[in-house]
Amino acid sequence: MTQEPGSWLGAAESALRAAPPTSLPAAAGALLADYVDARAVTLLLADYGLSVLQPVTRLPRTGETVPARGDHPAGRAFSAQAPVVEVAGEPGMVTTHLPITVRGDRLGVLSVHLPEATAGAPRVLELAAFATAFGHELLAAERDTDLYLQARRRKRLTLAAEMQWQLLPGRGFAREEYTLGAHLEPAYAIGGDNFDWSTTDDHLTVTVCDGRGQGIQAALLTNLTVSALRNARRAGISLPDQACLADQAVYGEYGGAKYSSTLLLRFDLATGQVSAVDAGSPQLFRLRNHIVERVELEAQLPLGMFEETEYREQTLHIEPGDRLIIASSGVHSALSAEGKLFGEIALRETIAATHATPPHEAARAVVDGLIQYHGSHDLPHDAAVVCLDWRGRRLSESRPLM
């Protein structure tokens, strides 16, 4: 029996929290059968390459995949981040595809097959809220079971890729002032490239690491670099000192034989001022008023190349409506199958073409452009792209000066 709109969501969230980690899909199906007379509920998770959505059936196996982009209704819901109602073949029934997104991190889609009479606009909004609550519980469940991580895989990850994905904060994040989206390739064999971010009430810190080498050795280097940067950041020290401490950690382990090219950015959410330390090869581009420019930063030594390197920060300013793209060397220095450099011009053209797409799709589109240029999905080097859309803080949100 269905219940009145708005009367069941709180109880449903409590029931999801009480469900065992491996039973979330079954719990969602039972709840929605009770609350909205759902006849079937399917959980589709985005794979590591964000190319397909994999229906979770008898875990860890999955059902037939559907494209994460294109004409499939579930793919449209995922890429557009909006519910899509599909008219079913069965008279009087529809399937509502609901994006599962947690604070800007896109996880997949919840597809609910239910009577058309119970799928009006108010109910769809409630179902969308249910999908978000389900996503929060899904992330919590991943701490205690491998089932959902297994269900995302089209094939086995390399050990280096396993380490890298466990190190990442997610693939997206959003709040009032900005939206972040990021993409990594080759998703199932990534080695040294990595991105990280952290937010406070007043600042956002973003780092992109371009670890030297390939495979497990590159993953170990990047793991040390990211952990050292996090340790320094959580100590509350300045951006240049974060770079200095991470530099010492990497040099202390490798003695200059290995190093990590890293870009560090710290955004003031109230003013749009950005502090930057350019310690290597990741490049920064800005899209403003449909014009793409490379942001020239003071090039400094990669982390760990020499002992006790001193780092300096510089500042720049971004405006509401700006889009920033950070690309690792595997993107801006990539070669085609004929040995021609991808280069800044091609990269700028690719970034410009993404101006109307959300950050998640923009980051992915840049890597897709690189894959097309290379002529194969088997990229010879890791490619990492982070896209940030800046809205800034409204004056009413600004904190008074103390």
TrEMBL record:
Entry keyword annotation includes Hydrolase: yes
Name of the top EC class for this enzyme: hydrolase
SUPFAM superfamilies per the UniProt record, alphabetical: PP2C-like
UniProt keywords, alphabetically: Hydrolase
Keyword Hydrolase: yes
GO molecular function annotations of the record: protein serine/threonine phosphatase activity
Domain PPM-type phosphatase: from-to ranges: 175-390
EC assignment: 3.1.3.16
Highest taxon of the lineage: Bacteria
Pfam families documented for this protein: SpoIIE
Protein name, entry field: PP2C family protein-serine/threonine phosphatase
Source organism: Streptomyces albidochromogenes
